[in-house]
Amino acid sequence: MLSIVIPAYNEEKRINKTLGSLKDWLPNSEIIVLFDGNDNTAEVAKMYGVKVIEYKTRVGKGAALRDGIIRSMNKKILLLDADLPVMKNDIEKILLTDADLVLPKRKIIGMPLRRRFLHKAFILLVKIFFPSLAEFSDFQSGVKL
Q1: Domain boundaries, the chain
Q2: DSSP string across 84-114
Q3: CA distance 98 to 104
């Protein structure tokens, strides 16, 4: 079985498509939405019958992900951004692996030049300060298993 952990901050406009797709693609998966925003994301998510954790204050993405992992009922956990940055066939490929950790590489088409530069600089710094992570090419991917 699979648990899908989705941190969400004001994703009311996108969470509907994301949860609809995930329910269609992976109907037997546990889905946990962790919400710390101030829009109707939690109400939209509840319509899909998923587990929704609402925070009273802003906890941030990292804390929400940690909490989601702790609350997950399954050994295999997919961490996924609320904007569904991956297609069904990519998720299928990710789930077929027997690796302990999967960090897919994003195609950064259309990313503004400044953001692309900062993205590349961040990856370079991580590789310099943490040589054991040198084989990974994208630590900020919105998908992790």
Answers
A1: 2-84
A2: --S-HHHHHHHHH---S---PPPP-TT--HH
A3: 14
Highest CATH level, class, for 2-84? alpha beta
The token pair that represents 91 in the structure block: 């998720």
Cβ pair 51, 19 in contact under 8 A? no
Residue 21 CA from chain centroid, whole number? 14
Residue 21, Cβ density class (10 Å: 0-12 exposed, 13-18 middle, ≥19 buried): middle
Q: Is the pTM here over 0.85, yes or no?
A: no
Residue 32: DSSP 8-state = E
pLDDT tens-digit readout, 64-112: 999 999 999 999 988 888 888 778 888 888 888 887 777 666 566 676 8
